[in-house]
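Input sequence (126 aa), recorded before submission:
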Amino acid sequence: QVQLVESGGGLVQAGGSLRLSCAASGRSFAAHPMGWFRQAPGKDLEFVAAINWRGEYTDYADSVKGRFTIPRDHAKNTLYLQMSSLKPDDTAVYYCAADVNQKPGTSTFRSEYEYWGQGTQVIVSS
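Predicted structure, token format:
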């Protein structure tokens, strides 16, 4: 059974940092693009960041550029989202996702992803 399990969410003050983790099990996604999305209360799911299989290409939403990074560890089959300079607008449930299609680039649209985690809540207080 393939699973993506996020962890690392929590309550943090504005300006603080958090690192989210996404541990994959059931299969390796080392050869696949992966990404993070988020959904704030009352809003649609939105793209946050993506990384290609080798980790050489990344894409970020304009709202998080310069503040978030998306490293991955193939040996641990784990994806991360390093978040810094957090703002109240970053409050959301964060989901990791994996694209089963092997390709050289990143995947930035939710329709490209087949596997999703259950989400982890991030709350940024002002």
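Checked by second reader. The longest strand covers residues 18-25.
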